[in-house]
Amino acid sequence: MNSKPRLLISEVPVICSEDHLTQWIEAKGYDVESIVLIRDLVSGTSPSFAHVQLKDSLLLDHAVRVLNGQTLYGREIQVRRIESRTRPATQHTGKHKDVRKASVP
Question: Where are the beta strands (DSSP E) in 14-98?
């Protein structure tokens, strides 16, 4: 996903697929540009959240009000808007502070 603001959807049921979540959001009137359902790498199941980018980012706040608290597969989901964070550029000086604690005899 790029740096556009997007939705963070929490409490997504484990049985929900990206396709189903996309269809569900689009049925509510919002065109989805991209969606990433976050899955546990070991089990392959969803730990219950997704990042969703809408085609029209001006509708994000409206989508939060409409989708938040809705039921998906019998589970109440939580929706909020998130902004991408850009890391500030850092200048590498080649010097590192030693943060190890001194050993006590």
Answer: 32-38, 49-54, 71-72, 75-76, 78-82
